[in-house]
Amino acid sequence: MTNRIILHSDLNCFYASVEMLYHPEYKQVPIAVCGDIEERHGIILTKNALAKKYDIKTGEAIWQAKQKCPQLICVKANFSLYLRYAMKVKKIYLDYTDHVESFGIDEAWLDVSDCHHLYKSPTELANIIKERIRFELGLTVSIGISYNKVYAKLASDAADVNNIFTIFEDERDQKVFPLPIRDLLFVGYSNAKKLKMYGIYTIGDLANTPLSTLERIFGKVGITLHSFANGYETSEVAHYSACSSLKSIGNSTTCPKDLTTLDEVKIILTILSESVCARTREQGFYGKTITISIRDNTLNTITRQMQCEIPTDCTDIVVKHAVILFEKHYSLSKPVRSLGVRLSNFTSIAPVNQVSFFDKKKDLTVKKLELAFDEIRHRFGHFSIQRGCVLQDNDLNRLDPKSDHVIFPESFFK
Predict the structure, then answer these.
(1) Mean pLDDT to the nearest integer, 250-262
(2) Residue 14 and residue 110: Cα distance in Å, rounded?
(3) Which of 44, 116, 318, 390 has the most CB atoms in a 10 Å sphere around its CB?
(4) Listed residue (243, 251, 244) closest to 279, CA to CA
């Protein structure tokens, strides 16, 4: 038996719960927190319990949600407010352990292996944390308790609102194995579909599939899936100071209209890349990994990434790679509903690249031009200067992704 005790804390309906603190009248009606409601960036980010009864789903468009619940009240997201509350919650966690690892803005792992013996049980400790968050901040939280991070998250997903759920080693077969395969971390829509083709429908089915079979089907990913399903995952919960460094900078948006041509896609990728690179320059970083996410009009999502030859903060380079990724992995057989661009694998050291004298002059000119863009937009706003390619479509060029950005959750794989 392992001595590790890992908690996974998940704030219930976080954005909506914070909004209800400031607007008590929202507690009596179905509400959803969305992107820019005046534009079509209005996807559902979260909803309260009353809205959930209408089967409103995270990620669907406001118009789809309104069809299910005509009386739905849509509230524009206030990320600065949510971040402030997320930090207050984290301060409570840090009273019990300094191993607190965020998983997005509203979730976190806590390794309480060194302090849980001070309480009657890990459940008592989790309950104390839960009640402090409710009493001091007015928020509710579901907490999962287990011996590794993956099972702890499974436990918090299984917990009721404002409740606690455990998955210990002797509870694995009973509590984990009957769960559907999609409940397991790292099993997305595509992997689940592929697993079902091989008759693997539950986590137990996956756990009992020979490792050699999974490795043959999925390669290295198959090894990870097998480890996760069986509860063999042993990664440590990072120290809170290690989680404060920036891992990636990304923006995503629901497009003002569904995109049906590559030219339209290039406009949105350019706008998003401009914002990502501007933030990267603000931080003094250069990124080597470029990732795009694509969601079609049926809300299916794919994510793909590639490496630059050298780290960059240049919009043109990020756009070039983003377009290559899009053309390689998406055929536009279905209209594109939303797009995302992310830059990661950072370094603060300026890249060194051997180029000709003429290329060097061009690189310096581009860099000066981008810095001039940043300064103009800082002083006069995003729309004070725009690229010519963006001005080709008046429906798409109204997007200001730096002001209306979406916060990407942190990856499990650091």
Answers:
(1) 86
(2) 18
(3) 318
(4) 251
101 catalytic per annotation = no
Per-residue pLDDT at 360: 46
248-392: CATH topology: Dna Ligase; domain 1 (3.30.1490)
Class (C level, CATH) for 1-164? alpha beta
* 169, two tokens: 């080693």
Nearest to 2 by CA among 201, 338, 236, 309: 236
Q: E strand or H helix at 292, and its extent?
A: strand 286-296
Provide the pLDDT for residue 361.
46
Instruction: Encode 102-125: b = buried (16+ Cβ within 10 Å), e = exposed.
Output: bbebbbbbbbbbeebeeeeebeeb
Task: Compute the C-alpha angle 108/114/119, nearest 5°.
Answer: 90
Q: Is the pTM of this model over 0.85?
A: no
Cα–chain center distance at 79: 14
- The CATH 3.30.1490.100 portion of the chain extends over 248-392
The residues of the chain that CATH labels 1.10.150.20 are 177-244
Which of 19, 60, 101, 107 is flagged as catalytic? 107
Dihedral in degrees, nearest 10, Cα atoms 104, 49, 252, 88: -40
Cα separation values, 65 from 41, 218, 282, Å: 14, 36, 37
* pLDDT one-digit tens code per residue, 69-125: 999 999 988 887 888 899 999 999 999 999 999 888 899 999 999 998 899 999 999
Q: How many CB atoms lie within 10 A of CB 387?
A: 16
| CATH of span 177-244 | 1.10.150.20
C-alpha 337/C-alpha 295 separation (Å) is 6
Look at residue 132 and give its three-state secondary structure: helix
Q: Which amino acid, 257?
A: K
- Residue 71 DSSP label: T
Dist. CA 20–CA 72, nearest whole Å: 14
Residues in CB range of 126: below 8 A, 6 or more apart: 7, 143, 145, 164
